Amino acid sequence: MPDRSARDAEFTAFAQTCSGALRRTAWLLTGNLDQAGDLVQATLVKTYLAWSRVRPGDALAFARRVMMNESIDRWRRRHGEVPVGVDFDRVHPDDPHERVADRDQVVRMLAGLAPQQRAVIVLRFVDDLSERETARQLGISVGTVKSATSRGLASLRATYAPLLSEGELR
């Protein structure tokens, strides 16, 4: 077993390399910057505690799995509530950063999905994982990934179509 300082150095390198990807995934899962930071922090703590069991090539996959489980646990504790900030649904038309508004709309749409559907959609289409990798990350079958993807995309389409006709999205 490597000494503690070597283990700490390995984990620190991992955290520095992968924290950006974990923050992006957490933000899409929670829809809230503060909650995303808390989720990443909890994920890194749990990953560190299990670091001796993590295979070097699978560290990011392990951390994502921890994050998904933590996200679902938090959602269950809140009984399905999805808290959002005061200005979460306000889009300022004179804002020069239209991409930010579009991103906010995507996060709101993702927040309307069930946790498993949200996790599958984020892993498949944001983190660009295959069905098999997504199933492995979440500990579910490939068939469940396929059905959750289908249902999640159908729900997103149903949400997107009225917004498109109202002119909220271009």
How would you characterize this protein structure?
This protein is mainly α and 170 residues long. It contains 7 helices and no strands. It has helices spanning 4-30, 33-49, 59-77, 98-111, 115-126, 131-138, 142-165. Helix 2 crosses helix 3 and helix 5 crosses helix 6. The longest helix has 27 residues, at 4-30. The chain is globular, with a radius of gyration of 17 Å. It starts with a helix and ends in a 5-residue tail after the last helix. The relative contact order is 0.11.
Write the layout of secondary structure elements.
Layout lengths: L3 H27 L2 H17 L9 H19 L20 H14 L3 H12 L4 H8 L3 H24 L5
Helix pairs in contact: 1-2, 1-3, 1-4, 2-3, 5-6, 5-7, 6-7
